[in-house]
Write a structure and sequence with these properties.
- The structure holds 2 protein chains of 2 kinds.
- Chain A is of the alpha/beta class.
- Chain A is built from 11 helices and 14 strands.
- In chain A, strand 3, helix 4 and strand 4 form a beta-alpha-beta unit.
- In chain A, helix 2 crosses helix 9.
- The longest helix of chain A is centred in the middle third of the chain and has 17 residues.
- By secondary structure, chain B is mainly alpha-helical.
- Chain B contains 13 helices and 2 strands.
- The radius of gyration of chain B is 22 Å and the shape is globular.
- Classes of the chains: A alpha/beta, B mainly alpha.
- At the A-B interface, helix 1, strand 2 and helix 3 of A face helix 1, helix 2, helix 3, helix 6 and helix 10 of B.
């Protein structure tokens, strides 16, 4: 009987209540997540990193998911710092000002903020060069498209998202100069309904390969339903579209978390700005779909090696923007500063940028 | 046979006992929930309800979180008592946050207390403006204020999203959707060092006091109550129904707008798309748990705020999912609605009639 079980447990609990005291391990690492972990997406990838960290370093970790990017974040972060977490990873842009504020009151704690731009005395920054993976998916898209129209469902026109869009079209046009890209903004990081609607709109307007910079699997699922191709993002989303899912540009934070925590433990951590890509193992492609011809697969593998070696740059000049202006001259690569300030579309994108 | 029987007269005692019963049942439900999740229920109770307020910092966070709930709930209660159903406080809060931020950003070079005073006025007026739309449509075209005020929440969300991506965006912020940080002159003074509790808490207490006087001691408040109990009696007595709609919606809008101002000028210090943490909707639960009574609102806001704080703690110390706070809120509302049945009904043993 469930009831007697509950009563027994309640009785046991009363006995053991006295024993509840300091429940926290001496060394703990805290993670603040913007959304529920779920089974794919931005937070899911961070959580994979957290699990890798536990496994490889033996530290304990705790996390709070679904933390709004508002005043609540400060309380959550402060609670972690107050109880003595050694390292705190705040994994969304909207936590920036709150994490920075708390970091000032806890100078001995190491803080790391993902995707922001404010560095503190004890707050480092981390981000990944997602656009490197995007470039490769663009190459695949340029080869696989029949209509020469590609589609992209995007959240907000911040530099990180624009880098992805522009790398995608650069990749596509490097193999298919006729390729053009349409973008639909859904103004939300996670809204499966809107994402699906946007994907269906793109598909009905002749796009036959689509991708997304949003957090759900809706775009991949929509492509699967319509018998078209799609690239996932953040996570391998192939189980949501076994036929449609060509591959995905995926994020890998685990090594970075392990290195950071080890550096803090060794006492030689310095808050810096890490922007890692293929070379650091932070960006990878998910397994390639069988539908991609072997020759193309080989080429992609070669390009992956070039990205790792640093001999391939997705924004190698000449890079021309939508209006025809050359933003990077031939023979040069786009600088990190330019990447961080990106607020335009490149040639080949046929949509207009909002605002 | 156990039967529900209508009471000859609504039970006064039960109408006050019902929220307490609901809270009690919520706690029991919580203990069961912790047990079913394989957690020690007493530890769960401690983590959820005691840990968050075990020091002054925790208490200050509780008061900070409860402040917007108090402000909004007391404003809404004025209308709810007259059956004016403003469901859109969330949108009014956002617009108040926008108008207050506009003042802060416009006066970013200036020092002095006038910035804050103007922000308070702008926040209140912004919320009133947003609430005036359903009030106008209701009094002029007899539209349903529940629908109109609710739909305007989404309009407000899109409005703030557009503003922080456009006119209000920090020019040095790498295109991220947020305004620049406000200057000190646009921030509400803190009540004590080392935490985030600010002047808005005093505003909330004042609003509860004013709300109490208005609802229980003023003629207009009396009129609105009569209109709530008996619409026809109010009309027969010559009370203007339109005036009540306006007062009901504008008071809710003003308080929600002020709460929005308190968020941007308080713990946020800037405006982003996340002005509200659902305070506009949570305050509706608060108002009902509190029986639309300002004293009750004070305590119900604290309880509601504690559910949020406890949920965070339960995640950090017990690995429970983030939805735990929502489950507690849901139980509270469900049990309240359940026990409210007994205000008008009672249980009776009755012989089954053949």
């Amino acid at each position: 009987m469930i009831l007697t079980k509950i009563i027994k447990k309640l009785a046991l609990a009363t006995l053991s209540c006295a024993m509840i005291g300091a429940t926290q391990a001496a060394e703990n690492v805290g993670f603040v997540y913007v959304s529920p972990i779920g089974d794919a997406g931005w937070t899911y990838q961070h959580d994979l990193g957290r699990l890798q960290l536990e496994k490889e370093t033996g530290v304990t970790t705790s996390f709070v998911e679904n933390v709004a990017e508002g005043p609540d974040a400060e309380r959550v972060i402060r609670e972690m710092a107050k109880r003595g977490d050694k390292v705190i990873f705040a994994t969304s842009f909207g936590f920036m000002n709150y994490a920075l504020k708390v970091s000032k009151s806890f100078p001995k704690t190491a803080f790391v903020h993902a995707t922001g731009y404010k560095l503190g005395k004890n707050m480092g920054l981390v981000n990944a060069r997602f656009y490197e993976g995007r470039y490769l998916t663009g190459v695949i898209a340029g080869e696989m498209t029949k209509s020469n129209v590609l589609g992209y469902v995007a959240a907000f026109p911040i530099p990180e998202v624009l880098q992805g869009i522009n790398a995608f079209i650069q990749g596509a046009r490097s193999v298919n100069p006729k390729a053009e890209l349409r973008v639909i903004w859904v103004n939300s990081w996670f809204d499966p309904g809107k994402e699906r609607q946007a994907a269906l709109t793109l598909l009905s307007q002749n796009s036959d390969v689509i991708t997304h910079h949003t957090d759900s699997t809706a775009v991949v699922q929509a492509a699967e339903d319509q018998g078209k191709y799609a690239f996932g993002y953040h996570s391998d989303m192939s189980k949501y579209g076994p036929k449609a899912h060509l591959t995905a540009a995926t994020h890998h934070w685990g090594d970075y978390y392990v290195n950071t925590v080890k550096a803090v433990q060794a006492g030689n951590w310095k808050p810096g700005s890490v922007w890692g890509g293929y070379a650091e193992g932070m960006v990878k492609l998910a397994p390639l779909n069988k539908a991609i011809p072997g020759e193309l697969q080989d080429r992609i593998r070669k390009m992956e090696a070039q990205l790792k070696a640093g001999t391939l740059h997705p924004f190698a000049g000449p890079v021309v923007d939508q209006s025809g202006k050359t933003v990077v001259a031939a023979g040069q690569n786009m600088t990190d500063d330019q990447l961080n300030q990106m607020n335009y579309y490149l040639q080949g994108v046929v949509s207009k940028i909002p605002n | 046979m156990l039967r529900l029987e209508r009471r000859p007269e609504a039970s006064h005692l039960m109408s006050y006992a019902s929220p307490l019963i609901a809270i009690g049942l919520m706690l029991v439900g919580g203990l069961l929930l912790f047990t079913l999740l394989g957690k020690n229920p007493l530890e769960g109770f401690k983590v959820f309800f005691i840990n968050p307020i075990s020091d002054w910092y925790g208490v200050s966070e509780l008061l900070l979180k409860a402040t917007p709930l108090m402000l909004i709930a007391v404003g809404l209660a004025v209308g709810f008592r007259a059956n004016v159903w403003n469901i859109g406080a969330e949108g009014q809060l956002i617009v108040g946050g926008i108008t207050a931020s506009a003042v802060a950003l416009y006066f970013q070079e200036s020092e002095g207390v006038h910035v804050l005073i103007l922000m308070v006025l702008a926040g209140g007026l912004g919320g009133m403006l947003w609430a005036a739309i359903p009030a106008f449509l209701k009094t002029r075209f007899n539209t349903n204020e529940i629908l109109v005020s609710l739909m305007l929440v989404y309009v407000a969300q899109l409005l703030v999203s557009w503003l922080v991506h456009g006119p209000m965006m920090d020019p040095d912020g790498f295109n991220f959707p947020q305004s620049r940080m406000f200057e000190d002159s646009a921030l509400l003074p803190l009540l004590s060092e080392g935490n985030r509790l600010n002047l808005a808490f005093i505003f909330a207490l004042a609003a509860l006091l004013v709300g109490y006087v208005f609802m229980y001691r003023s003629f207009t408040g009396f009129q609105m109550q009569v209109a709530g109990f008996a619409k026809n009696a109010a009309r027969y007595a010559g009370f203007s129904a339109k005036r009540m709609v306006w007062i009901g919606l504008l008071s809710g809008g003003a308080m929600a707008g002020l709460a929005g101002m308190a968020e941007v000028a308080g713990p946020m210090g800037q405006i982003t798309e996340h002005v509200s943490s659902n305070y506009g909707f949570a305050a509706i639960i608060v108002a009902f748990v509190a029986r639309l009574n300002p004293v009750g609102i004070f305590f119900a806001s604290l309880l509601m705020a504690l559910l949020y704080l406890g949920g965070e703690q339960a995640q950090q110390y017990m690995n429970l999912p983030s939805s735990i706070s929502n489950v507690f809120q849901g139980m509270l509302l469900l049990f309240l609605l359940g026990s409210d049945v007994f205000i008008n009904y009672r249980l009776r043993w009755k012989e089954a009639v053949a």
